[in-house]
Design a protein that fits this description.
Blueprint lengths: L2 H18 L3 E6 L2 H17 L6 E4 L9 E3 L12 E7 L6 H10 E11 L29 H12 L4 E4 L28 H15 L6 E5 L5 H14 L4 E5 L7 H11 L8 E3 L2 E5 L2 H7 L5 E4 L7 H10 L3 E6 L1 E2 L2 E2 L1 H14 L4 E5 L10 H10 L15 E6 L1 H6 L1 H14 L5 H9 L3 E8 L2 E12 L3 H8 L9 H8 L10 E10 L8 H15 L4 E7 L5 H6 L3 E5 L11 E7 L2 H25 L5 H11 L7 H16 L9 H13 L8 H12 L4 H7 L5 H19 L5 H11 L2
Parallel strand pairs: 1-5, 1-6, 2-3, 2-4, 4-5, 7-12, 7-15, 8-10, 8-11, 11-12, 19-20
Antiparallel strand pairs: 9-10, 13-14, 16-17, 17-18, 18-19, 20-22, 21-22
Length: about 750
Amino acid sequence: MAEAAFIDLCRSLQSQAAATRQRRLLVLSGGREWGQAQARLLCQHLLADNRSPRACWVGTGETLPEATRIAPTQSGALLGSEWALLVFDGWSGLHPDALGAACGAVMGGGLMLLLVPPLAQWPDFPDPDYERLAVWPLQPEAVRGQFLRWMARQVHRSPHLLLLEEGAPLPAMPPAPSLLASPLLHDDSGCLTPGQREAVEAIERVARTPGVPPLVIRSDRGRGKSAALGIAAANLFKAGVKEILVCAPRRAAADSLFENARRRLGLEASRGDLEWGQGRLRFCAPDELLQERPAAQLLLVDEAAAIPAPLLESMLDHYPALVYASTIHGYEGSGRGFALRFQQVLERRRPGWREIRLQQPIRWADGDPLERWCFDSLLLDADCEWRAETAEPLAVRWVSQSQLVEEGPLLRRLFGLLVMAHYRTSASDLRHLLDGPNLRIALLERGQQLLGTALISLEGGFDRPLGQQIWLGRRRPRGHLLPQSLAAHGGLWQAPLLRCLRVMRIAIHPQCQSRGYGSQLLAEVEREARELGCDYLGSSFGVTTRLLPFWLRAGLRPLRLGVSREASSGTHSVMVGKGLSADGCRMIHLGVARFAAEFPGQMVELYPDLDAELAQRLRAGAAGEAPLTPAEARILHWRDLISFADGQRLYETCMATLKAALEEWLAQGLLEPVSEEERTLLLGKVLEGKSWKALATVFPGSGRQQLQQRLRELYGRQLERLLPGELRPLRARALEGATH
């Protein structure tokens, strides 16, 4: 490939992009050194002749001194940034979320370079991103490259890019599109498109007019949705509105909103909440909003698709002036599931609600090839179309990941179904779907219609030494969520030793829900678990009054409830399980019986704000279980004390045992002499339930970690004196493991 001809081709490609205000994608497929050398050469030329004032290189290793380097694992740094020239080095790992964010960071008229191995060899490339996908005991090299096989096909077949292959002639320059760039507004409204101006006016109307139903704004990336929220907030402050709340899954997701509000008000760029005169624009995370319910004249919810519908619905109860904004095809999750599920809630709760969809791009022009390729490759706009059901029988079939790549339309329908059914489905979920080493996929179909799916993972089966380290909280092997958490947080030391089938996701098409299809699919999953010789079936999910009954009907019962709410969902995670083998049934019995005994006493300190109906359903789910026998209670009691004193067990996960032990020692005079300070800590935390923050004022310089460690030492001293003889070898092994 002649250097001059290569540079001329790339300059022509960038000139074409600039003339249309669209972006262009150039893929360099070949050896690593060749691809990186071509990319550096191109960057140097384009930077030298000022065609690209700034360049970004997403990857690791040596790049260009003139380019800003961002590691693929730090793709969040790309959100909100704009680059005229961006290099994505696939040799550093093809993290799907990073690739999507990179596509979104290229400005209109810009150029993106994607460096990849030869397409035929790419599926066998040991991608560095496999490090986060490998599950114990597999090493990263054991991960199969089905996602890379899919991506190689998207590069080879796509008309939306220019492919340069090492050793091959230069490709022909694609013809320029006939469409001209969409004109942007330039007036004093601060808006750049008619749709954005309409959205700003509608937001202001919601805030100013009592009783106006909620407004929903939906758009793809780059359409100015968040900017519209910020411009409207600034206009409302000028009109005398004083208190506006902003809610989003993460603070960073609201940065654009705050930035545009500051710009509209003429304030200097800065981070954090905004104050202007008597007006205040304040961010509030979903969990904080749910618990504290701060007052506001207007609530703006950005990236609503990434917040579960039950939490969005609760906002309707407390905020009369509401605007929900959602990305339709996002790099971090899709808004189509939000639209399908939440519009039903709005129809029922707030009839007359209005939706505005922003169509015209702002950051680039219509018909952008890079956006189209990104959507096609990462399935950001995948759909699971609905056809009228036929009389054909229901069937469940298990499909392999390679089958999904071969049957592209099926993969699109499956991923589209997952998007519709779950509040957060991202591009990374596509990679896990195709490359997850311990993943199995079940499809529920009627003829050609996909009705539902279940994604399950095989977990557990550890040897005793490693199982003990997991129980003590010292080891957390990747990819074994349920056994690890049941042992380290729930005290069920048997969980890592037994084999488990965990239901990761189960989804039924919205058009055929409430017909028993989910229960039929779960019954097939249980049958598969028994055939595989699993000891128990389980799942972990954000618990709501709507979801819990489904699992209880299938015989899965509550084992533990997460202590803290998820910030993005505002829900506690519950773990449920059902025994399949004799050993599995014994372990599930211990977990359910313990939950039934301890949950009521945990309500005050751990779950003071838990919904009363949900609490009742959780208690009912564990009701009827035979109580722990004295022998069972005794072994759990002492094992809890060992795992707390000598391991990394968190206080909150065994507080009932710690309290019962201390009360017994005090009543029987068995508490060894302690200092006045130690006694204050024991009584204040364990018996009185004071918060770590309150105790820190009594023990200056000590935070939660230091105070918890002091409690471990106090209980360890008690075990030295009181631990029964038959359990001392267990403690000796625990202490021995702590020294390695």
